[in-house]
Amino acid sequence: MRTLREMEPVQAVYPISVNYQEYWKRKQQFLKTAVNVPLWLMFAVEDGRFSYEIDNVAGVAAAGDVVVCPPLMDFRREVIAPLSFYYFVFRYEDGTEMETDRTIELLRLLAFKFTSSERERLYSNFRQLNRLVRAQDGQSKSRIQHFANDIWLMLHMEAESLALRGKLAEDRLMKEAKALIDRHAFREVRLQDIAAHLHIHPVQLSRRFQHIFGVTPSRYLTSIRMEKAKSLLVQSEYTIDHIARLCGYENGFYFSRAFTGYCKMNPSQYRKLYGLASL
Fold this sequence. Notes:
The protein is α+β, with helices and mostly antiparallel strands. The protein has 2 domains: about 15-165, Jelly Rolls; about 175-279, Homeodomain-like (Arc Repressor Mutant, subunit A, Orthogonal Bundle), CATH 1.10.10.60. Helix content is about 50%, strand content about 20%. The chain has helices at about 95-110, 120-135, 140-165, 170-185, 190-195, 200-215, 215-235, 240-245, 250-265, 265-275; strands at about 15-25, 35, 40-55, 55-60, 65-70, 75-90, 115. Strands 1, 2, 3, 4, 5, 6 and 7 form a 7-stranded antiparallel sheet that branches. Strand 3 and strand 4 form a beta hairpin. Helix 4 (about 170-185) runs parallel beside helix 7, helix 7 crosses helix 9 and helix 8 (about 240-245) crosses helix 9.
């Protein structure tokens, strides 16, 4: 048996190869409302909302969603709310034509959109990408490949997992529940009201939502608010009270308590550690 000392280092082989990447902040509209290109496209949404249609499959993507368009498919899109997102043009290097076709079918069954149950991991990738995109040097470009591939792997593994569990048909009511949370996350929203709107018991809402998305609706709502708060703490000089209101909290006290529970540090500590002044 070979020891670890004797083993040769293994060079990382990524399933996708990024040809081009860009970050857009609060984009009001797309330059082109429809495209059809020979490479893969991936939109990883940090904030805002946009509607899309890919190969006659329509949907709406919000913060924390990743939309992927395979090559040579009609891709129509329209901004609904000012959009901040990471945009990748890439080649899919992982496997044969059969494997590529299988991946496309999985994406089609997911309506070409992925909502990660590991939201903290996704937004951690976003923050690293933000720093790397601004650096624009050779080392940064190679590291961008790593974080773009981590987003892709989360998407692909989740799609495979859903296929194995027979959940690709999904639950229409839970899709509606997620859309309602996305739409009202930064206002006063109660999960009891969402359950009443869907004519189901709150306990049933929680169980079915977690079954589909891998996270409870309350945790999902908190993650949306906290990731927006992190972005505002890092990229703005707004007061804690103002950020609290922008993220759907009544005041800075309740927000700070929720933030500390979520991030294991208070908002001021987070701003000091990750804010623009620390770069």
